[in-house]
């Protein structure tokens, strides 16, 4: 079931990006060449190291994953130097660790404020979506209920902070940290808070072919 949800979510992501690819040039063609494009599309990918927030039953070891994260942003407006975007991203483990592995597909709002003539792009955001926790080593045994859980699926929420650093007109480096909350019956509180940290590369589409600098604030 989760795999069907993930595939459906990825199709939705692709659809949103394709819609943005059509929308951006149409809007950019009407803009003044000396103004910064309000609507813009970018895609990113990178490696993600995750502290999963789940410990072994004895409480001594926390789960860790190494995964990949990919997604895109469609900037939709600007207000007093702030640039909000709709972001979609998916994270999937490639090294699952020994306790649990986590994957999710998220969508939400990201707001950036550029500095130094648009070279630095610090941002904050809040994403929501669906996620799955797979319990390694034959499942996770909960002593209080005498139940072994092999995987759980839940809604997730994720505040995030990060920064993009422009290298060229099209490429930038990315680093960000998320705080992803999953619901799970394997803990007394019924939830865990994971911390994924992603480092990667951003590609910025330019449909106008006119380089423009963000205003320096």
Which key phrases capture this entry?
disordered N terminus, 9-stranded antiparallel sheet, 12% helix, Porin, mainly beta
Topology:
Blueprint: H1 2-28, E1 40-55, E2 62-75, E3 83-95, E4 100-112, E5 120-135, E6 140-142, E7 147-149, E8 151-166, E9 171-178, E10 180-183, E11 191-204
Antiparallel strand pairs: 1-2, 1-11, 2-3, 3-4, 4-5, 5-8, 6-7, 8-9, 8-10, 9-11, 10-11
Please, could you describe this protein's structure?
This protein is mainly β and 217 residues long. It has one domain: Porin (Beta Barrel), CATH 2.40.160.20. Helices cover 12% and strands 55% of the residues. The chain has 1 helix and 11 strands, in the order H-E-E-E-E-E-E-E-E-E-E-E. Strand 10 and strand 11 (191-204) form a beta hairpin.
């Amino acid at each position: 079931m989760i795999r069907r949800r993930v595939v459906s979510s990825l199709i939705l992501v692709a659809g949103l990006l394709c819609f943005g690819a059509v929308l951006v040039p149409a809007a950019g063609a009407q803009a003044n060449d000396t103004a910064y494009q309000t609507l813009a599309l970018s895609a990113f990918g990178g490696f993600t190291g995750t502290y999963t927030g789940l410990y072994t039953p004895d409480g001594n070891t926390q789960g860790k994953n190494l995964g990949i994260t990919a997604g895109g942003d469609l900037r939709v407006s600007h207000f007093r130097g702030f640039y909000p975007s709709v972001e979609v991203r998916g994270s999937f483990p490639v090294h699952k660790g020994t306790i649990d592995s986590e994957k999710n597909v998220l969508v939400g709002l990201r707001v950036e404020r550029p500095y130094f003539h648009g070279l630095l792009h610090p941002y904050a955001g809040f994403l929501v979506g669906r996620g799955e926790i797979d319990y390694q080593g034959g499942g996770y045994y909960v002593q209080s209920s005498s139940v072994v859980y092999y995987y759980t699926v839940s809604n997730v929420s994720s505040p995030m902070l990060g920064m993009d650093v422009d290298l060229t007109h099209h490429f930038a480096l990315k680093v960000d940290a998320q705080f992803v909350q999953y619901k799970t019956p394997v803990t007394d509180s019924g939830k865990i808070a994971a911390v994924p940290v992603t480092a990667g590369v951003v590609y910025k589409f330019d449909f106008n072919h006119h380089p423009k600098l963000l205003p320096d604030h």
